[in-house]
Amino acid sequence: MVRAGLTKDAVVRAAADLADRDGLEAVTLSALARRFGVTTAGMYSHVAGLGDLLDRLSAFCLEESADLLAAAIAGRAGPDAVAALARVYRDYARAHPGRYAATRRPALPDGHAIPAGRRHADLARAALRQYGLDATREVHAVRLLGSTIHGFISLEGSGAFAHSRPSASASWNAILDALAATIAGWSPIDDETPPRSVRAPAGRRPSADMGGET
Amino acid sequence: MVRAGLTKDAVVRAAADLADRDGLEAVTLSALARRFGVTTAGMYSHVAGLGDLLDRLSAFCLEESADLLAAAIAGRAGPDAVAALARVYRDYARAHPGRYAATRRPALPDGHAIPAGRRHADLARAALRQYGLDATREVHAVRLLGSTIHGFISLEGSGAFAHSRPSASASWNAILDALAATIAGWSPIDDETPPRSVRAPAGRRPSADMGGET
DNA sequence: TAGGTTGCTTAAAGGGTTTAAGCAAACGAC
DNA sequence: GTCGTTTGCTTAAACCCTTTAAGCAACCTA
């Protein structure tokens, strides 16, 4: 009886790849067992069940994307940091749709995804640090950021923007400009001249390199 | 052999109620068959399969919410129409989480949900009519609206705002104010003085009656 | 009232999850 | 090195869900 030599980590990584390849609904214990040449019941040696696997997958993908976020935000502030954060999310979702879908699953209480989720919230607050928002407005801003970014990505991913002009990326740029302007308008320091049209505020030019118009 | 007397419509309505009660994942042909006192295979007399049922359910809920949207928007314009539209979506999602979840499923090509989805897009454009946006900015605005509203509702529904202050409704109001201000800023007619803080633009007061702080 | 249509049934196959019991490979201790 | 324990896996079995096929009986219509 040769052992397959699985580990918890290998299982979660295989689940992530399977999710990207065939969709999150396709990640199933029996599909993974098939891929590893192992019986389905054997998977229970590494994972407590499907729910546990999905929770671990969610945590794994949240940590992975949090690493990307941290790297992208480092050394940036204000609108640049916000644009970098948004771009990481969208790029991650487009490059890894299954992994991204895993991050959007509601985290189960006391599950592995909870600390990873908190990390994302912390990173969002870090990206907003320069604005000097008061506590309440900071929470509003974090929620506005999350709503807009994840809402757009969700709609884009479900093909809602596929069959109409202008391109999704054009709207993405316009929306990010508006988002940055709104938050700047909430800021006590950057309060002098909120931009009034789709023109970007001075000091950033996100449109030129945000995802290349597709 | 007494017949249960089912119809396609009764099945879809039962599916909608089941979705609200137990979640969209719980709507299954066998669960519905159980509820009707019928064998699972018997459901195939009314529905081509689970996929077909979910597509019909999605269309049903989209039509239902579109009726609410149409009624709420009628007689309103500008920020009032936008606020009314947003409120309908959030209220619908909170009163009928399963039905709302059904509306968020990606519509399958040539499925029943396609025309209903188009109706939603048309209603969003109607709500924006007064702003007199050019074609491109109108598309941006529709996408911004959808991203923000559905993004917020999705995060709220998954409990992301549950354990922190201020309340989700406070953020909702702040976000809607910002949204209206952004769109007003894109408008050629309402272009004089975009609001610069969370203060609402003149002529609306959404905060007072938007869902009662919970 | 004699059709045909249609709303159901039984039967069966296939895929997924999960638990229980057991065996053998790997590992740590001596 | 072998011994005992741990652990990675297997087989077996129960349960749930979907879907197709075949058939029968209730209902509608002519």
From TrEMBL, chains A, B:
<keyword id="KW-0238">DNA-binding</keyword>
<keyword id="KW-0804">Transcription</keyword>
<feature type="DNA-binding region" description="H-T-H motif">
    <location>
        <begin position="28"/>
        <end position="47"/>
    </location>
</feature>
<feature type="region of interest" description="Disordered">
    <location>
        <begin position="190"/>
        <end position="214"/>
    </location>
</feature>
<dbReference type="InterPro" id="IPR036271">
    <property type="entry name" value="Tet_transcr_reg_TetR-rel_C_sf"/>
</dbReference>
<keyword id="KW-0805">Transcription regulation</keyword>
<dbReference type="InterPro" id="IPR001647">
    <property type="entry name" value="HTH_TetR"/>
</dbReference>
<dbReference type="Pfam" id="PF13305">
    <property type="entry name" value="TetR_C_33"/>
</dbReference>
<dbReference type="InterPro" id="IPR009057">
    <property type="entry name" value="Homeodomain-like_sf"/>
</dbReference>
<protein>
    <submittedName>
        <fullName>TetR/AcrR family transcriptional regulator</fullName>
    </submittedName>
</protein>
<dbReference type="InterPro" id="IPR025996">
    <property type="entry name" value="MT1864/Rv1816-like_C"/>
</dbReference>
<feature type="domain" description="HTH tetR-type">
    <location>
        <begin position="5"/>
        <end position="65"/>
    </location>
</feature>
